[in-house]
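The freezer alarm interrupted the setup, so I double-checked each line after restarting. Inputs confirmed:
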Amino acid sequence: MGERVRYAGAAWSIAAAVGVGALTGCTVAPSANPPSSSSSSMPGMTGMAGMAQPVNADAPVATDTVAIENFAYSPATITVKAGTTVTWTNRDQDPHTVTAMNDGPFHSPTLNNGQSFRFTFTEPGRFDYLCTIHPFMTATVVVTP
Ligand SMILES: [Cu+2]
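Predicted 3D structure, all chains:
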């Protein structure tokens, strides 16, 4: 009796191994088909790529001046050294704000056309901000030591 049980157990484990092998073959194939959904940090960029945007459209720019125009911050990402005062100027007819996300340190009043906002960055770090009136307007200040 003991012999039969042992034999049955061995047969079962072979079947299980084959099953696992088949499963692995199945899962590898589909995941290899859609390759790089990797750089999906910016969903909107996929559509803009077809509009022949410069590749470095959102590359960091070393400047302390940001224009707000056409419902966007320009440049969208800037780098400054700690201690730098950054100036934003609204060039749109519509009002905008410069408001740090994640409880960040700056929060401008509403800026009307031609008005500016200044903030001095003392701490190194990455500061994402947006316009509270048009929350799709986002940008970043990277402060280096
Ligand atoms: Cu705005």
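Quick read of the result. The pocket of copper (II) ion is lined by residues 96, 131, 133-134, 137 (CB under 6 Å).
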